[in-house]
Amino acid sequence: VHKAVFESSAKVSGATVHFVDYTYDTGNIIVQRCVDISDVKSPEEIAERVIKIEHELLPYVVKKIALGKVSIVDKRVIVL
Questions:
Q1: pTM for this one?
Q2: Within a 10 A sphere around the Cβ of 6, how many other Cβ atoms?
Q3: Rounded CA separation 60/13 (Å)
Q4: 10, 24, 29, 40: least CB-packed within 10 angstroms?
Q5: Distance separating alpha carbons of residues 45 and 18, to the nearest angstrom
Q6: How many other β-carbons are positioned within 10 Å of the β-carbon of residue 10?
Q7: Distance between CA atoms of 64 and 3, rounded to whole angstroms?
Q8: pLDDT at 75
Q9: Average pLDDT of the chain?
Q10: Which residues in the chain show pLDDT less than 50?
């Protein structure tokens, strides 16, 4: 995926943590974060930046779920 992003000359990329359902990548989004990639020189640089935010987001979401601070209301995810 990072190669496709690099080849598209995108200026931002990002990470998403979502609930898992029966279809690939269609679960309700819990959190997302963007990262600037306007100055990258390779898909590997994009991967490095994205994995850094993935490593921040996933523990954050797991903690919020464990504390009961994530809920779905009217098909929208609420993170307290």
A1: 0.85
A2: 19
A3: 19
A4: 24
A5: 24
A6: 14
A7: 32
A8: 86
A9: 96
A10: none
Number of domains, the chain: 1
**Residue/partner pairs of 53-59 with CB below 8 Å, 24 or more apart:** 53/14, 53/15, 54/15, 57/15, 57/17, 57/31, 57/33, 58/17
Tokens 């496709």 appear where? 4
Give the pLDDT confidence of 15-25 residue by residue, as tens digits. 999 999 999 88
The predicted pLDDT at position 25 comes to 86
Domain that residue 24 falls in: 2-79
Place of tokens 């974060």: 33
Report the 10 Å Cβ neighbour count for 55. 11
Distances (CA, A) of 21 to 7, 24, 26, 76, 77: 30, 7, 7, 15, 14
Query: What's the rounded Cα separation, in Å, for the pair 27 and 21?
Result: 5
